[in-house]
Sequence to fold (349 residues):
Amino acid sequence: MAWQGLIREYGERLLVSQTNPVTLNEGNTPLIEAPRLAQEICPGAKLFLKYEGLNPTGSFKDRGMTCAVTQAVADGATTVICASTGNTAASAAAYAARAGLRCCVLIPDGKVALGKLAGALAYGAQVVPIKGSFDTGLEMVRSICEESDICLVNSVNPVRLEGQKTAAWEISSTLGSPPDWLCLPVGNAGNITAYWKGFKEERAKYGKMPRVLGAQAEGAAPIVLGRKVENPETLATAIRIGNPARWQEANQVLAESKGHILAVSDEEILDAYRLISTLEGVFCEPSSAAGIAGLRKAVRQGEVSVDGLTIAAVLTGNGMKDPDSAIRGFQLSAPIDSDVDSLRKVLSA
Fold:
């Protein structure tokens, strides 16, 4: 049978309503081996890229959103709401449209990549810019949901994690067992929590679990610093969060997995972003490359030994989410004359 989305595929393994799933056939994303990238950043290891940018709205958020909106419909909600740095907004808007629900999204004014904002608008969401950070927006939507029957679909909604944990199952199924290390960006910490939940639920099946390496942007690294960041700043917009909603759970994951978390600069993120695309032909958004940047830095500094190990790195979003970052700093050459001699000169230069 053809793939029909996470809820139909995994059924009762997901603690969510099984009636009339709201789905766009999310999940089942590829795990791409990356030998050239491995040689560059972690020689001696086998590296795989979990490319979540091939979900319907271009990010991993669709995994949790199919569950959150399905449950919202089952519970009788007519409106869903979220705060977002972009990907959650687009995903919530798409699944709300699919279900015939009203969707409202709060975004930090001027801090969301245009590719993500375009998605939310195209799917028909009511987009509300706020004079504040994502963290402020999350406080606002949590408060409004406490006093109304509007359904909150941020990752503080536990049903979101039910969908997101399935990516861990897909990785283990493809590899035949969990990887030795899982590397991923950390923003609001919902994804690191969900992956660990997925691996834990299959611990008896495989008899092992990965160590987890998380990476935060230097300008938005509250877990690394051990304190809130009041005004987070980074070009990696998806992880520009100063007070993660699942901070405590992330620390628990790092402790239980004997893992590691570190901060990477915007320059290191952009370097990794370009390496992923130029060495492996995989186009992700800059925030997605934070996990690879973190792996590269940890190996270089001798904080993590990976020789002979299998590593899975999560690329959370598609590169078309933030096209401005892809073309920033590049300039096309002057046009050539329309003849073969001119082309020969270019190719021989």
Q: What stands out?
A: Residues 34 and 92 are 31 Å apart (CA to CA). The chain has 16 helices and ten strands. The first strand starts at residue 31 and ends at 33. The first helix runs from residue 6 to 10.
